[in-house]
Design goal:
Blueprint: H1 3-18, H2 23-33, H3 36-41, H4 44-49, H5 54-63, H6 69-78, E1 82-85, H7 93-96, E2 104-109, E3 118-122, H8 129-144, E4 148-151, H9 157-167, E5 172-175, H10 191-199, E6 203-206, H11 218-229, E7 232-235, H12 243-253, E8 257-260, H13 271-278, E9 282-283, H14 287-294, H15 317-325, E10 331-332, H16 333-340, H17 344-356, E11 360-362, E12 367-370
Parallel strand pairs: 3-4, 3-7, 4-5, 5-6, 7-8, 8-9
Antiparallel strand pairs: 1-2, 2-6, 10-12, 11-12
Helix pairs in contact: 1-6, 8-9, 11-12
Length: 371
Amino acid sequence: MSNMRDNELIYWNAFAGVGGFGPQSFKKLLAFFGDLETAWKAGREELIGTGIGEKKVENLLSERGKISPEKFFEDVLKEQIEIITINSAVYSPRLKEIPSAPAVLYGRGDLKILNNKSLAVVGSRKFTSYGERSTQSLCRDLVRAGLTITSGLALGIDAIAHRATLEAGGKTIAVLGTGIDDATIYPRENFNLAKNIIESGGALLTEYPPKTPSLKQNFPARNRIMAGLSLGTLVIEAAEGSGSLITAGYALEFDREVLAVPGDIFSPQSTGANALIKNGAKLVQSANDILEELNVKTSGRQTLLFEEQKNYDPKTSEEKILWKILSHEPLHIDRISKMTKLDAAAVNGTLSLMEVEGAVKNVGGQNYIKL
């Protein structure tokens, strides 16, 4: 990186630290001053002459005294964070199209993937086993079809989407509503996941400078970046008023596809996704539905999300009975025992053998499903 380039980046970063400067403001400053260092050091009258608006000028004058541009720049580099301006080669052309495209982004990892074909996968922090399995299955198939998965590193469906993508050997982008320096990555429970994303050739992205803490108002703003980067947004489980619906709203606003997995009508976690489908979002039953909607060509047959993946052949009479009553809905071992009239020890032993065979799965708390 040449010094000239560094020097310009120092001031892009400084203006980002003040906040409130979008692509249009930067355009006006550059057109008026020729470079951002001159703009940073300019007086009130000159700044007002740029046409960026009095409010921005006052904010800049009161904030810039608190920032040493050189030190602020060093702090970013120390964290192995790259500064991406709207003029950078790695800045996503898709993101550039949105009216509220951030002028400055911060990234870690392989930033070339910001140009990949990607799908935003979002959902509830409180998820059901159905939501978890839908996310895992769909992300696995989408990765095989060559898509990059974008999500928000939140607890719940977001984290499941990132993990499922990594397990399938895919690339994933996590867009954060906080700084992406090690000390600030949020939520802390997903710190190791964030590190795994970087190590696996994925990327972390934010519009917030290092050390920006978790502030409530930053998360809806972060959702527009997820929607803007992606060809479409897939909502897996979302209660009414969920943040996932904000992302879907942005996708609609930016003329991107909105897709949703239908959910149980009795589950509050499905209200949001079902309402989206009612209002015209694409109903998703398989990765194929998504690839068709996004117009992504793929090779090979995609498995249907809900079709039987295995034709298991029960080996004993007990296995036959259990295989018949098990489904994709979790059943507790006591309930299984009651329904089959088999004693608990026989049910337990048979289920353990079937789990080794890969026919059933204990999804936690002795609840079993058919695979």
